[in-house]
Amino acid sequence: MVVLGRLAIYGLIADGEAGVTRVLDLLSGEMANILTLLGCAALTDLDRGFLRRL
Q1: Vertex 31, ends 35 and 17: CA angle to 5°?
Q2: SS3 1
Q3: How far is it, in rounded angstroms, from Cα 24 to Cα 5?
């Protein structure tokens, strides 16, 4: 969670409110891509079955 806060702060420093919006858009897009690769339509489709022990 700290990383998410830092990314938003970096966006704020770089370009103000527009920078924060851009960072959140990028994160949202990345999450959508990850869910697609996992074959999930939403975060609620994730369960413990997607975890594995190393």
Answers
A1: 160
A2: coil
A3: 10
pLDDT tens, residue by residue, 8-46:
999 999 999 999 999 999 999 999 999 999 999 999 998
Q: Which tokens is 25 given?
A: 């858009």
Q: Taking the CA atoms of 44, 47, 30 and 27 in sequence, report the sign of the dihedral they define.
A: positive
Q: Is the pTM of this model over 0.85?
A: no
> Among the residues of the chain, which ranges form H helices?
2-38
Residue 20 and residue 11 in contact, taking contact as beta carbons nearer than 8 Å: yes
Tokens of 50: 């997607």
